[in-house]
Amino acid sequence: MEVLPVTGIGDVSPGDDLAALIAGAAPWLRDGDVLVVTSKIVSKAEGQLVDVPAEGPERAAARDEVLAAETARRVATRGQTRIVQTHHGFVMASAGIDASNVDRQRLVLLPKDPDASARALRAALRERHGVDVAVVVSDTMGRPWRNGLTDVALGAAGIAPVRDHRGETDPYGNELHITQMAVVDELAAASELVKGKTDQVPVAVVRGYLSRPGDDGPGAVTLVREAAADMFSLGTAEARAAGLREAALLPLDPPAAEEPAEPAAVERAIAAVAGVVAPGTVFTHVPGEGVRATPPRSTDAATLVRFGTDLHRLRAALAAEGAASLPVRPVLPG
Fold first, then answer.
1. Do 141 and 176 have their domain in common?
2. Eight-class DSSP state of 109
3. What are 26-81's pLDDT values in tens digits?
4. Which of 189, 223, 259, 278 sits between 20 and 30 A of 307, alpha carbons compared?
């Protein structure tokens, strides 16, 4: 397998015929090649540009407005870095808005529909230039757990985005149950090695992976994981803040739980708050009944307020364990 740079494309402007530019710069393209195209030149050709001031606070304010318009959901913020989910479903820094390799008074947005862009480019190359290639539209992203950036696929046509190994067996006879390789992401990352970020090589060709392209296929949208299924749908600080908000809003009459709480979960909740409750407050797990809360012996107002706080601490800890709780009025001493 080879990864080949496509040089000589030059700057791309709104309305440019991207298929003609690529075919002219790479007359050696042949059927079965995988064309990996940086999303930026796709966006430029499609006119996905916005004008902003070149300098000063006005530029920052304009960029904030553009970011807000491109954001479907905020994921995490650290200083000036904002990780958001775009309207496409991608989770990216600054919604993929790019200020590099473009005039200072412009920002480049992502293509409106990267899969549609890939299909259109593939069709133009096939119909007008006689070459049947697969197309991947790529961009750069960070990754949870890992430092550094890598290129991934935003759009794809003519290639299956995933190679599904589930149901196959490995050399030791073990059946594979979850292995689904994001092939278009791997090809995007390999192509970045010859494109670079400062060399003005926005297109690469992967040769030898496909014998011939298939139909357009479902596109890279199939790689987008819904927020509800994403184990990292919020940043750490944002998830903690969301949890604190939920703890503050625990209902006094929650719906009945479908299953009783696991005894170990109840014990963990009691242990979690044991070091912060008032002296004299005791929580005792009574299996099959719940948690017996014994208040301090004093019944002055301040002690009772503190006891109510401690009860809420326990309810929050139980909620963190997935256990709903219904407070029952305690029997006070005396």
1. yes
2. P
3. 999 999 999 999 999 999 999 999 999 999 999 999 999 999 999 999 999 988 88
4. 259
pTM, two decimals, is 0.83
Beta strand ranges found along 88-185 (DSSP E)? 91-93, 106-108, 134-143, 146-157, 163-164, 180-181
Q: Decide which of 236, 266, 296 is a domain's last residue.
A: 236
Cα within 13 Å of Cα(260), Cβ side: 9
Q: How many alpha carbons lie under 13 Å from residue 33 in its C-beta half-sphere?
A: 26
Distance CA 65, CA 62 (A): 5
Q: How many whole angstroms separate alpha carbon 63 and alpha carbon 50?
A: 9
Rounded to whole angstroms, the Cα distance separating 262 from 101 reads 56
CB 49 within 8 A of CB 43: yes
Report if residue 174 sits inside a domain: yes
Residue 225 to residues 199, 239, 283, Cα–Cα distance (Å): 32, 18, 41
Q: Is pLDDT of 276 > 90?
A: yes
- C-alpha span between 19 and 235 (Å, rounded): 39
Q: What are phi and psi of 114, to 5 degrees?
A: -60, -35
Does residue 192 fall inside a structural domain? yes
CATH of the domain at 137: 3.30.1330.100
Task: Give the count of beta carbons closer than 10 Å to the beta carbon of residue 62.
Answer: 15
Q: Are residues 212 and 102 in the same domain?
A: yes
Q: Quote the number of domains for the chain.
A: 2
CA angle 197-200-206, nearest 5°? 80
Of the candidates 101, 104, 106, 135, the residue with the CA atom closest to the CA atom of residue 118: 135
* Domain end residue (candidates: 208, 236, 264): 236
Q: 124 in helix, strand or coil?
A: helix
Give Cα 180 distance to the centre of its chain: 18
Do 128 and 272 reside in the same domain of the chain? no
Residue 74 domain flag: yes
- Residue-wise pLDDT for 287-302, tens only, equals 888 899 988 988 789 9
- Which residue matches tokens 């991947």? 136
